[in-house]
Amino acid sequence: MFTASLATAGLAGASVAPADAAPADAGPPTATRLVVIVGSVREGRFGPVVADWFAGEATRLGGFTDVDVVDLVDHQLPLVFPGSHSDLDEETARTARDLSQRLNRADAFVVVTPEYNHSFPASLKNAVDWFRAEWQAKPVGFVSYGGMSGGLRAVEQLRQVFAELHAVTVRDSLSFHSAWERFDDDGSPHDAEGTSAAAKGMLGQLQWWADALHAARARTPYGA
Q: In 3D, which of 188, 77, 53, 204 has the Cα closest to residue 128?
C-alpha cells in the first residue's frame, strides 16, 4: 500500500556563502534549487527507481526550476573522520568538496530512504555527518520505502537528526509499502494519480518553507 504520511516534523562542513541581497525594488527572493538524495548504496537497491520518479514529479509540477539528484553511491566518503588538524587525501577532499558544493547550492532537500533494521542506512548518516552548514536553515522532505512499514521508522529518526542540524522537516512525507510491488517496469507507480497528488502536497509544503527560509537567509545569514 502507498500512503502519504502525516507524521509530525521534528563534522566539519563548508560554510554557506551568504546570498546576494535582493535589489530594493525586487520582490522576495524565490527558492529554485531542490536536491533529491538517494540514501542507500546497497547493490540491488530500489532507491534510484523511487528517486527518479520523484525528481520527475518535482520537475513536472514546477515550483523548483532546478532538480538535482544526488546519489550517494557516487559520493562515498570514509567512515573514519579526519582529526581537526589532519589533511584529507586527495580523493576524499575532492569528493567532500564536490558534494558540499551541490548541497550548499540547494534551497531544499528531499531524502529518499529505505528502512534497515528499524532505522535508516549508515551511508546516509555518514553523508549527513560530514557536513553541517550546508543543511542549516533549509527545509527537508522525505520519501521512504520498505516492507510493511514503508520506511516510516527511518523517517522519524531522520527528523531528529535534521533538527540537530538546524534544518526544518516538513510534516507530510511519502511512504511506499512493499515498494517493489508499487512500480511498473518503467519506474512509474501503479497508482499514478494518488502518488502524484501526494507528491504535489509535500512539494507545496517544501516550496513554502524553501521560499521563506531563502528570503530569511538573503536578509540575514543564518547564525550571524
A: 77
